[in-house]
Design a protein that fits this description.
The protein is 83% helix and 0% strand. The protein starts with a helix and ends in a 5-residue tail after the last helix. The protein is globular, with a radius of gyration of 17 Å. The protein has six helices and no strands.
Length: 109
């Protein structure tokens, strides 16, 4: 019985790692103006952040557009960290599904 629990834990930990790793670029995309302006003191950094931000946040922006009135559209303004976590969850799950075969290995029989 311990074997299936160990296998399940491996899958869950890998999925959570993908989501946490995806949170970093999502957070940077949400706060790109602050990072570029206040940390780097550079207009070029602000412009690069403004250019890359929509690309990184594309999954959550698309999901919110297709959800219509089902989800509050002001999430990115009222709670930017939640917006970044939602994007990280989408990107992390997508990356996990794509990379699971190579990372976990051929354990399927």
């Amino acid at each position: 019985m311990a074997r299936p629990v160990k296998e399940s834990a491996k899958y869950v930990i890998t999925l959570l790692a993908f989501v946490v790793i995806a949170y970093v670029p999502s957070w940077c995309a949400v706060y790109s103006y602050w990072i570029g302006g206040h940390v780097f003191h550079s207009v070029r950094a602000v412009r690069i952040g403004d250019a890359l931000g929509p690309v990184v946040l594309f999954p959550i922006r698309t999901l919110l557009e297709f959800s219509g009135d089902g989800v509050d559209q002001t999430t990115r303004f009222t709670d930017p960290k939640l917006y970044a976590w939602m994007n990280a969850a989408l990107v992390g799950i997508l990356a996990y599904v794509v990379c699971r075969r190579w990372i976990i290995g051929g354990t399927q029989k």
